[in-house]
């Protein structure tokens, strides 16, 4: 067989394809390595291998070691269980805590030997993310560890509590609300069992706070911010009342420590006596004010939060048929906390040097008291009212707190019948002291007294008898010493006399002093007229005897000091003319008398007062006023025409003529006719009303001649003044 032709030639003739030219330079040669193949080390690599020989010791069997050790039912020792409390698995941590409890129950000596180690390890679980683990820890501390700590001395316990408190306060600031609430339960547990050793942590944690706060106060100050933050959470307030109760319970115990420390003057406060004067001054200037301001700010914030909580709890009975146990407990706990805060404020108010600071922070607290008491249950109102009443009694008149106290009393008058008597009893004393020390308080007290009278018109005024001193006091000699009423401002004076309308039982003891005030030159005419109007209204209402009112009016008319201006000699220029005031008073008195009934009967009742006043020969203007009273009531009375009265009338006419002659000497040029009529008119009316032809046995011919002579003198002076027509004077003379 022959070889096919052309085969070799064709194969040899084939030319290999030319490879494509590589791009790039030779400096970047590409290497291909197989996957998984270890690369050789670089030529300049450093050998870092370290070779050593191990020391192997023989170990005993763990089973043989456990034979003499305390283990739980799972065969784990205390050390192993403590290590497992930090496990990442919550179930392991729960089992470890239960195992520790099991070991302590079976082997109590383990707790005594390893108490510090147990607490140091378990205190980390206060902020555990698992609720069951936290509850297990709380149960373990409450039932076993805390009772064992109480048996030790205070020195050995202090360092242990320091670690525990550090983690408790750390838990209070945790982001998880449940962990925060659980931390408050741990805090309450420590406060209840170690009230004396508890402050050791605060001494370290609150170094910025000064020494002059008590130890317990500084301790609770550290936790107050956390209480405020948690209680401000709306979820606690509205939904979970059990959690709220837990927080309020802890807050109550902390506040109890503060209240107890402030009342008992603990060791920290007693150290003040050991300091030098220089150290005492240095520490009480800036640091004391700073620390107390911090404390009061926190308490003030707590008050606002607690009141909101009370309002929520108190509103539930209105929406539901009955209140549940958690809500009731929350309400009582909040009220208890507020009571403690009030006690702290009251105590600090008595001892605090910086009064302005104290008053600034106590004022909002007092303002909230009425709403708090109105929403409180009946069994709690008594305690709050008693505390408020004690604080109100202790408040000074010149304190800024007196205004909030008075406002609170005004709001609670209608709702607190058991205590309003005690409050009212304090008002007169506050009023009298405020006139000199705090005039701005005077008006507020008078307004409150006016409201008291309006609210309780039938009230026994025995508690208000001190008000008598406002108008005056009768001295042993029988004279009346004016009270501060005449020096009050006009609005306060008007309020004071308006109060008399509602306290008429005080008038028999006040009316004489009130008349003396009305006769004073210091009193303004407006107040004088207002007094007459108020007493007339009291008489019309049936609360003032007619004899007392008649005596008051006749006294005003007989003793009012008239300063008619230029009618007086120039040696008295300092006296301001008040003749117009007297004429208005005269008119007001006559109007009041005419409203009392039959004129002859009224005159009969007040005749003794009038005759005694006339017999004392008062000044001409007062005598004119007394005659006008007689003319207004009964000008025809036979009591006028007797020897004594005729003499008095004649003397009055002579005095009138003399006063008219003074107008010529001092250049007085008034309406002379009206002036003459003013003085002579009452006498004319009295004589016209009496029968001139009737023989009056009590009046002799000589007395009539004296009267005629008096009219002759008066006519002469009138002619000199040209103040009456001659024919009118002749007719007047013939009428006598």
UniProtKB/TrEMBL annotation:
<dbReference type="InterPro" id="IPR057949">
    <property type="entry name" value="TPR_TEX10"/>
</dbReference>
<dbReference type="Pfam" id="PF25781">
    <property type="entry name" value="TPR_TEX10"/>
</dbReference>
<protein>
    <recommendedName>
        <fullName>TEX10-like TPR repeats domain-containing protein</fullName>
    </recommendedName>
</protein>
<feature type="region of interest" description="Disordered">
    <location>
        <begin position="1"/>
        <end position="46"/>
    </location>
</feature>
<dbReference type="InterPro" id="IPR011989">
    <property type="entry name" value="ARM-like"/>
</dbReference>
<dbReference type="GO" id="GO:0005634">
    <property type="term" value="C:nucleus"/>
</dbReference>
<feature type="domain" description="TEX10-like TPR repeats">
    <location>
        <begin position="422"/>
        <end position="540"/>
    </location>
</feature>
<dbReference type="InterPro" id="IPR016024">
    <property type="entry name" value="ARM-type_fold"/>
</dbReference>
């Amino acid at each position: 067989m022959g070889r096919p032709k052309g085969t070799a030639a064709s194969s040899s003739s084939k030319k290999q394809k030319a490879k494509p030219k590589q791009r790039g330079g030779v400096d970047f040669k590409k290497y291909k390595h197989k996957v998984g193949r270890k690369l050789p080390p670089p030529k300049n690599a450093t050998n870092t291998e370290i070779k050593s020989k191990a020391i192997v010791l023989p170990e005993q069997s763990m089973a043989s070691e456990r034979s003499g050790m305390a283990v739980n039912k799972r065969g784990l020792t205390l050390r192993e269980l403590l290590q497992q409390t930090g496990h990442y698995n919550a179930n392991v941590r729960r089992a470890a805590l239960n195992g520790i409890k099991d070991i302590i129950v079976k082997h109590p000596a383990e707790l005594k030997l390893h108490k510090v180690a147990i607490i140091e390890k378990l205190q980390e679980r206060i902020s555990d993310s698992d609720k069951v683990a936290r509850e297990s820890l709380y149960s373990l501390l409450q039932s076993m560890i805390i009772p064992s700590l109480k048996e030790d001395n205070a020195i050995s316990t202090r360092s242990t509590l320091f670690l525990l408190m550090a983690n408790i306060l750390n838990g209070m600031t945790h982001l998880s609300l449940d962990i925060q609430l659980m931390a408050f339960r741990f805090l309450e547990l420590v406060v209840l069992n170690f009230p004396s050793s508890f402050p050791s942590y605060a001494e370290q944690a609150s170094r910025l706070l000064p020494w002059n706060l008590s130890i317990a106060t500084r301790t609770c100050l550290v936790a107050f911010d956390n209480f405020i933050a948690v209680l401000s959470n709306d979820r606690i307030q509205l939904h979970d009342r059990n959690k709220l109760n837990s927080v309020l319970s802890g807050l109550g115990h902390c506040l109890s420590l503060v209240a107890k420390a402030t009342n008992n003057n603990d060791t920290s406060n007693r150290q003040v006596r050991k300091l030098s004067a220089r150290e005492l001054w240095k520490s009480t200037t800036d640091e004391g004010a700073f620390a107390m301001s911090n404390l009061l700010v926190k308490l003030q914030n707590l008050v606002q939060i607690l009141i909101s909580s009370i309002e929520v709890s108190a509103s539930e009975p209105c929406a539901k048929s009955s209140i549940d146990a958690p809500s009731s407990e929350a309400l009582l706990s909040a009220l208890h906390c507020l009571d403690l805060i009030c006690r702290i404020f009251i105590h600090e108010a008595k001892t605090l040097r910086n009064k302005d600071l104290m008053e600034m922070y106590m004022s909002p607290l007092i303002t909230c008291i009425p709403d708090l008491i109105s929403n409180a249950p009946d069994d709690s109102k008594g305690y709050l009212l008693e505390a408020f009443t004690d604080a109100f009694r202790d408040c000074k008149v010149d304190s800024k707190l007196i205004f909030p106290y008075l406002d609170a009393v005004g709001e609670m008058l209608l709702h607190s019948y058991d205590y309003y008597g005690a409050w009212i009893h304090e008002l007169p004393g506050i009023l009298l002291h405020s006139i000199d020390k705090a005039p701005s308080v005077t008006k507020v007290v008078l307004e409150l007294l006016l409201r008291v009278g309006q609210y309780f018109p039938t009230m026994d005024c025995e508690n208000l008898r001190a008000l008598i001193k406002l108008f005056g006091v009768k001295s042993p000699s029988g004279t009346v010493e004016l009270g501060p009423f005449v020096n009050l401002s006009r609005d306060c004076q008007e309020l004071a006399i308006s109060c008399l309308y509602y306290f008429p039982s005080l008038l028999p003891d006040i009316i004489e002093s009130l008349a003396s005030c009305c006769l004073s030159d210091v009193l303004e005419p407006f107040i004088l007229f207002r007094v007459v109007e108020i007493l007339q209204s009291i008489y019309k209402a049936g609360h003032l005897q007619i004899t007392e009112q008649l005596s008051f009016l006749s006294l005003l008319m007989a003793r009012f000091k008239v300063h008619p201006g230029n009618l007086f000699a120039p040696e008295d220029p300092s006296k301001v003319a008040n003749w117009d005031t007297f004429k208005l008073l005269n008119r007001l008195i006559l109007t009041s008398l005419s409203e009392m009934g039959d004129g002859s009967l009224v005159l009969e009742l007040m005749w003794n007062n009038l005759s005694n006043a006339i017999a004392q020969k008062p000044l001409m203007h007062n005598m004119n006023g007394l005659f006008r009273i007689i003319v207004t009531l009964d000008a025809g009375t036979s009591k006028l025409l007797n020897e004594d009265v005729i003499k008095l009338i004649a003397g009055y006419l002579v005095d009138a003529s003399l006063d008219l002659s003074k107008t010529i000497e001092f250049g007085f040029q008034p309406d002379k006719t009206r002036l003459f009529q003013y003085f002579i008119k009452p006498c004319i009316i009295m004589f016209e009303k009496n029968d001139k032809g009737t023989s009056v046995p009590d009046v002799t011919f000589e007395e009539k001649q004296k009267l005629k002579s008096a009219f002759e003198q008066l006519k002469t002076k009138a002619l000199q003044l040209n103040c009456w027509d001659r024919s009118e004077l002749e007719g007047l003379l013939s009428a006598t």
